[in-house]
Amino acid sequence: MNKYKYILMLLPLTAFAEPSELPFTLQPDQCVALEQGQSCFIDIKVKWQTKTKGDYCLFVDEVKTQCWQATKIGLWENELEMKTDVAFSLKDSKHQMIYSGKVQYAWIYKKRKNKAVRWRMF
């Protein structure tokens, strides 16, 4: 009976605790192609949050993609085609990096060296 008292005492603390949000998230963080070298298509979602309001820009492989003015949070959703890993970064108005992350490119089958048909009838 004593062990159940401790469990009941901890329940209210966990029930009312706010879930901690990560300040920078990429979803999904991996794209899988069927064969090595093929394009991979994903719907990417980037969410970010800072402590102070400011002007921020999202860069995809060092290319400015979207900017936000006087805000603390941002959301960017888009379709992405990739054949290699793609780097994401959030920078402030002074071009200092605030957050960074990467979506990894993966494949199931290795690229075949010879694309010739490998079967014979006779």
From TrEMBL:
UniProtKB keywords: Signal
Keyword Signal carried by entry: yes
Keyword hit for Signal: yes
Domain of life: Bacteria
Signal peptide positions on this chain: 1-17
InterPro entries: DUF3019
Name this protein carries in UniProt: DUF3019 domain-containing protein
Organism (species): Pseudoalteromonas luteoviolacea DSM 6061
